[in-house]
Design goal:
Layout (H helix, E strand, L loop, with lengths): L3 H10 L1 E4 L5 H16 L11 E3 L10 E5 L6 H7 L2 H11 L3 E11 L7 E5 L11 E7 L10 E3 L12 E2 L2 E2 L14 E3 L6 E5 L3 E4 L8 E10 L17 H6 L1 E3 L26 H5 L10
Antiparallel strand pairs: 1-11, 2-3, 3-4, 4-13, 4-14, 5-12, 6-11, 6-13, 7-10, 7-12, 8-9
Length: 290
């Protein structure tokens, strides 16, 4: 469970890191299963519905930057979605009824790893209230050197920034909207977790170390937070029954809770390229190249 100080820190800064959430055996199993799935891509020549490949991926140089919907590919990842220790902490922050809205396993290869440009998750997925967050389960020690998550503390209470360039939604915020000097790395040892608010401005640089950095992200919401784009615009669900099957705790809710939250729509947009990486590659320049 989170302490009172940790809850206060999250509410003020928009994120919190917690160590020793998973056992050593759980971490070892996550590493083993992830290694096996990555190895299965050795002869894959392009990204598909399961894997997002790094540029330069080849049979003799396997590089994967994302496993999409990992719980569909192995029961171990599904067990992380239902992990009581994690859900108990989430319940302290957004209430006892919890729905999952998405999941992915983001990876940065040693001495490489694609950047994730600065963005707010809320820019992609506005709801009727903002009791949503992302849990990052550290499969490896996550450090500044291997591409730890960077956050701008307190940005979850700031406006929703413009994620457009040349009139189109590109899923990234330009450096002119914030000071990168304010960024804080969220370093978490393997088996720990980070939690960040859906409106938190965050990104991650490339991996400059000789060690991998793998984070299993679980995107979770209060059950009474309703997606403004409805049910038919999500990979996770498209029907009422599928939507309610995503409840991890609590009962179905047919009355969304409406709160006064800022919303900026991710439109107009070009055809969805399949991942945030491909979307952000349309940027004219990377915030991490300057």
């Amino acid at each position: 469970m989170l302490s009172r100080d940790q809850i206060d820190f999250y509410n003020e800064h928009g994120y919190v890191a917690v160590t020793d959430v998973l056992s050593s055996s759980e971490v070892s199993e996550l590493q083993r299963v992830t290694d096996e799935l990555v190895e299965s891509t050795r002869f894959l020549t392009e990204s598909d519905e399961r894997f997002d490949l790094e540029p330069g991926h080849a049979a003799d140089d396997v590089r994967v930057r994302r496993i999409k919907r990992p719980s569909l590919h192995h029961d171990l990842y599904m067990s992380m979605l239902h992990h009581d220790a994690i859900l108990d902490m989430v319940a302290q922050l957004i209430g006892p009824s919890i729905r999952f809205t998405g999941e992915k396993l983001n990876m940065k290869s040693a001495e490489f790893g694609s950047v994730v440009e600065w963005h707010q998750d809320w820019g992609f997925m506005p709801h009727t209230n903002d009791d949503l967050l992302a849990v990052g389960i550290a499969i490896d020690d996550t450090t500044t050197e291997n591409g730890a998550l960077l956050v701008i503390p307190g940005s979850h209470r700031q406006p929703i920034y413009d994620h457009h360039e040349d009139g189109y939604f590109v899923g990234a915020v330009g450096r002119e909207h914030f000071d990168p000097a304010d960024a804080v790395p969220v370093e978490v040892p393997a088996g720990g977790i980070s939690i960040h608010h859906i409106r938190m401005l965050h990104g991650s640089p490339p991996n400059t170390s000789d060690r991998p950095r793998r984070l299993l992200f679980l995107e979770l919401a209060a059950a009474d937070a309703w997606p403004l784009f409805g049910l038919g615009n999500w990979d996770t669900w498209s029907t009422w029954d599928e939507y309610n099957a995503c409840l991890l705790r609590g009962e179905p809710v047919a009355e969304p809770r409406m709160t006064d939250v800022p919303v900026r729509l991710p439109h107009p947009s070009r055809p969805w390229p399949g991942s945030i990486y491909a979307l952000q590659e349309s940027l004219s320049s990377s915030a991490f190249s300057e």
